Amino acid sequence: MSWRLGLVDSAWFGSPWEGRAGFERAREIGFESVDLFIGYDPADLSADQRRALRRELDEVGLVPWALLCTPLGLTDFNDSVRSFHIARAKRVLDLAGDLGAPSVMLCPGEYVFQGELLPREWEWARLVDAVREIGEHAATRGIDIAVELLPFRFAFINSLDSMVRLLDEVGLEGVTAAIDISHLWLQRIEPGEIARLRGRIGQVHIADCDGVHHGDLPAGTGTTPFVPYLTALRDSGYAGTASVELEFPPDPSQMLAWVTEAHRGARAVLEQAGLTG
User: Fold this and answer.
1) Residue 240's pLDDT band (cuts 50, 70, 90)
2) Residue 64 phi/psi, 5° resolution?
3) What is the C-alpha separation between 20 and 259, in angstroms, rounded?
4) Where residue 221 sits, what CATH number does that domain have?
5) Contact 156, 111 (CB under 8 A)
6) Domain count, the chain
7) Is the residue at 137 inside a domain?
8) For residues 213 and 186, what is the distance between their CA atoms, to the nearest angstrom?
9) How many CB atoms lie within 10 A of CB 273?
10) Alpha helices, DSSP H only, in the chain?
11) Segment 187-216, tens digit of pLDDT
């Protein structure tokens, strides 16, 4: 089965192509879908603005695959702050439903104070409870959640062990894993280990890095060995969309060339892994 290639729209942030212009350029380059990075509260969007966004995507011809949500306060020890982040995540899910996107990615953040002040198990329990509550809301909208594995020391989910534990303890079929291939490489997680998530992977990102530092670079410009990971993802049962993620370009005015290079690199590794038609 051929995989569809998408683009996380945050690639355009701060560049001349932010907004509809970026959607149009992405489609011209050859991307088939888009992941929308939601850095705002969807409550700020009127019904007309939601309809206009959906209309733009339809007119350009990009499939809205996923919305990306970074509710870093899901475990905040201030209940009012935590409640806001849970409620905002639910509003992102509602926006996904309005746009016809079948998936939302959650990036749940890190232990505070390096996990040395508050009991880690207490923070973990708050995370599980929050993700379950959000997941239950997602189920009412027919949307899946994918939780991202991050390559950072104090991230809640920075290993396959912690990912499997979260999915098991949340216990909802629609709560899955989001895999950024460069994050696996940074953590030196072997491709064969992906089999532990068989049937539980909901999103895949393609980004490169130098093998030491987080990069979000175009595929082929770093050291990430994509083909073994892509093959393992296929063998784990994942099929569908791989989304290119690029962040913080050194020169925003050159972003169009960078996105074009990233599309070319991503297509190349998908072809090498036998995942294109």
Assistant:
1) confident
2) -75, 105
3) 15
4) 3.20.20.150
5) yes
6) 1
7) yes
8) 7
9) 19
10) 20-29, 47-60, 79-99, 120-140, 160-170, 181-186, 226-235, 255-272
11) 999 999 999 999 999 999 999 999 999 999
In a domain, 187, yes or no: yes
pLDDT tens for each residue of 95-124 = 999 999 999 999 999 999 999 999 999 999
Is 277 contained in some domain?
no
Domain range enclosing 42: 4-272
Residues 266, 33: contact at Cβ < 8 Å? Answer: no
6 DSSP β-pair partners: 33, 243
For residue 250, is pLDDT > 90?
Answer: no
pLDDT score recorded for residue 1: 61
Rounded alpha-carbon distances, angstroms, from residue 137 to 72, 232, 263: 18, 31, 34
For 42-49, the CB contacts below 8 A with 24+ separation are 42/88, 42/91, 42/92, 42/94, 42/95, 43/88, 43/91, 45/95
Q: Has residue 202 been placed in a domain?
A: yes
CA distances, 148 to each of 1, 71, 158, 178 (Å) = 24, 12, 9, 4
User: Taking residues 119-136, what's their average pLDDT?
Assistant: 98
> Distance of CA 112 to CAs 74, 128, 164, 184, Å?
11, 16, 22, 23
Lookup: tokens for 106: 């959650």
- pLDDT (0 to 100) of residue 84: 98
